Amino acid sequence: MGRPPNILLYVVDALRPDSLGCYGNEEVDTPAVDALARQGTLFENAFAQSSWTRPSMATLLTGLYPGVHRVLDRQDQLAENLTLLPEILRQHGYRTGFITTNPNVGSFFGFDQGWDTLQELYQRTQKGHVLGRELITDSETVTQEAIDWIDTVERPFFLMILAVDPHWPYRPSERFDRYTHGSTQEHEKVRGLYYGEVAANDDSFGKLVAYLRNRNLYDETTTVFTSDHGEEFWEHGKRGHGKSLYEESLRVPLIIHSSSMAKGERIDRPVQSVDLMPTLLAVAGLPIPPHLDGRSLVNAASSEVTPVFARLSLDNRNLAAIRDYPWKLIWDRDTEEKLLFNLAEDPGEQASVTSRYQHVAEELTLRLSQHAAENLARREFFTETESPETVSEEAMPENVRETLKALGYVQ
């Protein structure tokens, strides 16, 4: 067997798939991602396990549901004895690097495990006050840092990137601020600014792919393009994320270009972010630990369809969801409100049919309860303690707290 492939895991914060050309958007220019989709496998229905960054990324890196890794609320940290994807890859000869622009996924919250190099671009490298313009690093800077890292690292490598644009605040440069012209409504303008940052990120991603091609690394690198969660634009009265478990908050793009997977294929069956860790281990030719909640997507077209689970425990919200097409149930665990949707008839989740299909709502509620109970039973095995590791806001370093404030996570 030859050398295992390099792996590039490129995560775009708060990116909705319907803002990309390859997912049907005819307004935004996303040629780099569209080209990757033509050359790789695109998953039409990929879903995150939560609607905000920290639990979603914890799932991506552990292959475990949020109820197992227990990174749920603002104060929760990853437990040290959880085994992360980079730890396994490093044990098998990979050089590992992580470039993060969001402190929710940084060393302060336990995401520094398994990396040979961790670059947290929201903080200064020298002592002193962090200036406002330094808090949010654009994807162009991220790409240059990635190129510099790949230039010096041995093969095979695993590089993960978390790029923060198009996360709020939406401030595209003049070059990419071309989607707000003619906007008469505030909602249209906000969406246009978001599109500008999507286009800017695509441009930066394209430069990274071009670099891999120029270095003859593209074909021997498995490239994954995805997001940590979606974004709401008032479909249900809210804007942003971390507020609900509707489709616009959970659906994410997922494109994989790999010699282990089909070229130009579009897969309709639902998949989840929890599937990425076993997928990348399979691509690397490594055994998949039996305790993982996800399943490899290498042969996804012929794999069994499984339900999608999601959870949100944040800011006094305690929501759980199960998506078993065409049905989807969102359950408020505190108020006991249950919203049932038939996605085939109502893809926008505008009209709950709980009262009409009470038996379906009861069945899905039972399955959610069973899922939660299984998570509760398993999490003791992984984290050894009865409660998650937590930290107070007052204990956060100033640069972490100020960047979270700039991104809208801290008031």
Task: Give an overview of the whole structure.
The chain has 411 residues and is of the alpha/beta class. It has one domain (6-306): 3-Layer(aba) Sandwich (Alkaline Phosphatase, subunit A), CATH 3.40.720. It is 30% helix and 20% strand. The chain has 11 helices and 19 strands. The protein has helices spanning 31-39, 53-62, 66-69, 85-91, 132-135, 139-152, 186-214, 247-250, 276-283, 358-383, 398-406, and strands at residues 6-12, 41-43, 46-47, 76-77, 95-100, 117-120, 157-163, 221-227, 232-233, 239-240, 251-252, 254-257, 265-267, 271-272, 308-314, 317-324, 327-332, 338-342, 389-390. It has an 8-stranded mixed β-sheet with strand order 6-5-7-1-8-12-2-13, with helices on both faces. A hairpin with a 5-residue loop joins strand 9 (232-233) and strand 10. Helix 6 (139-152) packs parallel to helix 7. The longest helix has 29 residues, at 186-214. The termini are far apart. Mean pLDDT is 90; it is low at 124-133.
